# Entry
Amino acid sequence: EKTKDSIMSSLHAMIRIFAIQKKLITMMAGNDFDMRAIGREKTAVYVMIPDEKSTYHFLATLFIKQCYETMIQEAQLTPDIRLSRRVNFVLDEFANIPAIPDMDAMITAARSRNMRFFLVVQSFHQLETLYGENARTLTSNCENWIYLNSKEFDHLTEISNLCGNVYTTGGQIRPLIAPSQLLHLSKKKGEALILAARHYPLLTEMPDISDYAFAYAKAPELPENGEKVHVAMFDLNMLASELESGMQEELFYEEEEKIPEEYRTLNKDEALDLAAARLQDLIRLLEDTEMPYD
# Structure
């Protein structure tokens, strides 16, 4: 009895945000693209979340994780175990979203599967706070660094050391670029330091994005009121009582044709066991993702 109460309490805490946000449930009840197509054809997916409140940031983390795992599965189907089209994860404000489970393993294995991660962070301290010891694994697996500005002296010293030293005419040794120089790169000129793989460091000027001659396409118009998706809901207390009684009534499916094929050939006990296994998988998945409790 205590085990059941613990499971139900954990599940309720995990899905509480969905229970109080009916619009969120409606939005996530349907899907109009195949995630597997991202690795097969030219595709751009934009995940936009509010920066003033972190309540829904876990959804971005969950999407990134699921997308990566889907791409891994797609790569496994190819003869060379690589995606036919390179997939780039451009993660702006990377240190401001909840930690992605197994991110250190993901960034290590991504390159061999024809995937790249672009991690944009404002502070190394944020990264270390979020990922702890694994933060060093993430940075060491980033082959190319583009530095713009920082006030973290430890970070400035590390970049200065990576750039190496030079010998002066008097035989003295000095840093190629000192931490104080890194601190005062010109934002107006667009100065940036680039450390690219095994090449020597490059201090250059990068034009603002508005200076590039991109051919802009007109954004598609979004419907003001999208079609409401019907979502079958259930109450956790009802679920608990129905599980105890052997699930006498259908809890999730209102129409016979909507029942998944894998359930149709099972008897009640087998379907109950499969549903319980799916529920445990959901709990484990949610436990791996930092969810808001406030």
